[in-house]
Amino acid sequence: MTEDRQDTKNRLLDAAENLFSHKGFEEVSIRELAGAADVNVAAVNYHFQGKDNLYREVIRRRFIIQRDRTLAAIGRVLTENNGKPPLDSLIRSIVSLYLDASLSPKQDGAFLKLIVRESHSNGDHATPLFFKEMVAPVFRTFSNALMQARPRLEQEQVDWIIASIIGQIHHFIMRWQKRQSFPEDSEALQIMLNAFPALGLPVEEYIQEVTRHITQFSKAAIDTLYPEVSP
Amino acid sequence: MTEDRQDTKNRLLDAAENLFSHKGFEEVSIRELAGAADVNVAAVNYHFQGKDNLYREVIRRRFIIQRDRTLAAIGRVLTENNGKPPLDSLIRSIVSLYLDASLSPKQDGAFLKLIVRESHSNGDHATPLFFKEMVAPVFRTFSNALMQARPRLEQEQVDWIIASIIGQIHHFIMRWQKRQSFPEDSEALQIMLNAFPALGLPVEEYIQEVTRHITQFSKAAIDTLYPEVSP
DNA sequence: ACATAAATTAAACACAAGTTTGAATTCTGT
DNA sequence: ACAGAATTCAAACTTGTGTTTAATTTATGT
User: I need a labelling partner for A134 at 20 to 30 A (CA). Which of A125, A140, B47, B115 fits?
Assistant: First the structure.
């Protein structure tokens, strides 16, 4: 029984993650969910006491994984450089981690769309959870690491820098998602590709190019605005 | 009759713009719409043949205004500087125009949320229209202006730069919206304000600060990555 | 092996959504 | 003033949603 319990519960969680991340909370019905997981419609309410709770569980499960990966990645860059990480290594590790997790089909797939979606959505389905368990720790750690890389930076300056970096990451993730959602021969897609040809690349190269751009763009801005004193 | 026709139709359009921009397409019901405009529920279908079409009309009406304002603003910066606009003036005019139109209550209010929402949404309610009539012309014009400001820039480099600027704009708009959606005493709001104190400012100052930051951040990056040749 | 608890199922419920209907009202041109 | 068209209205229709129910099946502990 505990065998089957975990089975249906996990099948539901897996299906939910898939569907939610591709279509969003509202756009996925319980019947669709149940169909994909091959369980009865009542299972959602039996095991999770409602759709909202299932969504929260999905988000939590993934958030924790990604949060831990992020903290680990930042920690790695720090220790590898004895507490004084190069700025570009730091930025690159964050950017590529999020792009990878969001876009790469080889990874866990599109699950990080959940995060982007959640941070842009208005629903209160999981927002408090999202902020408390995910945003806050990652922000603090990244913020501290940036101040290790550039000790003369003040907290407020770091806040602005992080906002600009995150904004770019989100935007390039969204662009890719949008690109994928268009029919291959649609006029809108043509316009999009014309305005931004990189969207025609394969995923891996897109991730690579975006990572390169955000990293060098942001580093250049930081170096110019807040120059290090020469030793 | 043509008097009343315009009256109910416009009342509906106005109410729709208000509600759609604050709550999004799905979250606004026809009954809510009709109630706010003080018309019968059937009016939407009578005058617009369905909710989708009403949404499209709302979007189009506002898109055209904002698009024309954008093109005019860029044109102004160009002529004021004899075709060689300073980079920061160019960026600042775009950024402040979009922040103003999106956040300022004195202006048309929150209508530009529509654009941000639309460019991040998955629905096909108005996306092709959005791309063809709005994104394409604005992109082309902004792109050309940037190449006037920095003649050595190549098209592909400009594409990346614009993406970074737009990404930042969207992100700061979203942050403000999200901030507004939180209860004043919620824990999530505390976390948010702690990670980004500028959200505690009044709107006008927020717009001012964000404009300043995006402008100098982006200009610094461009100047460093693609330096001008000295004459 | 059996009583009990857990889990699954098909069916129904309650509700809110967009839309349609057909009658009543208002406007328009003559 | 009147006929005909345009508009408004209350009400019903249709569909899809999340959830609940009550019966049935399956697993568990003794």
Answer: B115
